Amino acid sequence: MKASTLVAALILFASPARSQNCSFDTITPSQNLTWCPCEGQFLCAKLDVPLSYLDPSLGRASVPLLKLPASPTSELGPYRGMILINPGGPGGSGITLARTAGALLQSAIGSNYDIVGFDPRGVGLSSPLPDCAPSALAPRDAPRLADDFYQSYIDFGYSLGKNCSTSAAAAHMSSATTARDMLSVVAAFSSSPDGARAALDPSLLNYYGISYGTFLGQTFASMFPRRVGRVALDAVVSPEGFRANATYPNINHLDGALAAFFVYCHAAGPEKCAYHTGSTPRDIFTRWNESFAHLDAARAESRNWDNATAVASALLTFKVAMLAAAVDPLTQFPAIANTLLQLEARVANSSSSSSSLSAWTAAVNDEIGDPSAAGWVNADQVLGVLCSDQRNRLYGYRIDDFRPLIAQLQGQSVIGETWIKTTLGCAGWGIQSDDVFEGPYGGDTEHPVLFVSNTFDPTTPIENAVANAPKFKNARRLTIEALGHGGSATSNQCAFATVQRYFQDKLCGREHYCPLEAGPWGVLLNGTIQENLEAAGLASLRSLDFCDVEQESTSIKVTAKACCQASEAKRLNNQTIVPSYPSFQRCFESLVTRG
């Protein structure tokens, strides 16, 4: 069937729609779901809702929706209704997720469902927006000191909070408010022609949420347990952890996901992995470690290196790029291999020039986005949700107040401190929401909820699903032996099939497991990821020696490298996982003193 014919056929099965194409900027919000054809294969609508459900006199808001209609001839059976989707964040756009991945989600969940993306309150195309992150907020230079990175985000948060204090939207962006919007969407669907023909109870929410979307899903299910239909929560966030500080303990397995890069690169071989070296995964780690050692921003500042500012910028970009690779390893492990090669070339000599490092940093930032506070896009939409849900508990914090949390994150991962940057902004957000759900989380839901987790998710550990699934009556759990942030990042066919069985009411039992499938570079490892990390001696990056590099003379640099190699030899001879860092430091300092 031609695309135009298919769209026309699908429109026949939609709610009453306008005959002409529309766009979100031309749609008048309605209290009914009035769909109109837009953006090719999609249908668009805007739902009119109260700005505040607790005080309707404050005015109105609108929720934008983008629908990929169900197939009228689905092989899976009759039309079952709509599934709302959320990509995470906070601040993520469901409209964008539906636009870019709606077809993929529909193929995984079932073509007998509409896939409907919506923008949460105060986000994306919703109205009103906070719209208070103007370019007038002066960007800061890249941090020279470690503290400057944290302070830049704190300062940005204070500026943003002040600027947003008069916004009509800012006090109405909590997840509880968005959960009420979701209930309004479900109610409108239930009274629509689509709801009337759905095989399932149209008054129940069907939902697929990723990352922050799982917090939103748990919020809805806890507030309205008897309105829960088929709800899948992928990459599970701890509600209590999110409301406390949104960072700790989310990165339990971040170092494991990083270490898996060395394992997969080794298994892929030099033909596929550009960063391959030596004969073991540990050799690749050592190569990576030597480049990492050149990016010691604190030492660069304290020793007055000429390239100290460039080193600080490069270190931040390096860590954020590694985090991006851990989140999406199927596509980003091959990319980070090339990125690391380019960094290695920049730091190969004893004194990397500022221009050389800066060029590398700029090129990588073009790919991953500017990780500094100056590059924070839509920060008002992020903080409006996050800080509201936390009841502004971090408002007024200074950098010293954050140090215990920073130390915890540094203790969890070699790149852990980058995970705090969003939370820092809440120090300046004093705008209080009128509607915050504070628990308890859990409930006797109308239909069992499905919790989905990867064994090595770098930012939403499997422990979150283990802890929170039992709070919801008869909840199911799907464990995927895989890397990456969420099941959607794995391309695990077993997982996709299991999720589809859940949404088609064919999933029996509470515990489900999908074994490891082909990963980055198409490599299928033997055994579990944990078994491979242990075999490679990379089960805990925090326990490994990280080489120091002094850039004041080539001879000292070479000696430091030799000291690292001697330390590694000691490890191998003693058959221990790693030698102690202090012993290496004493070795290095004695060589510098003699030199």
TrEMBL record:
Transmembrane segments: none annotated. Residues 1-19 form the signal peptide. It comes from the Eukaryota. Pfam families: Abhydrolase_4. Residues 413-505 form the Peptidase S33 tripeptidyl aminopeptidase-like C-terminal domain. GO terms for molecular function: aminopeptidase activity. Keywords: Aminopeptidase, Hydrolase, Protease, Signal. Belongs to the peptidase S33 family. This is Tripeptidyl aminopeptidase. It comes from Colletotrichum orbiculare (strain 104-T / ATCC 96160 / CBS 514.97 / LARS 414 / MAFF 240422) (Cucumber anthracnose fungus). The gene is tap-1.
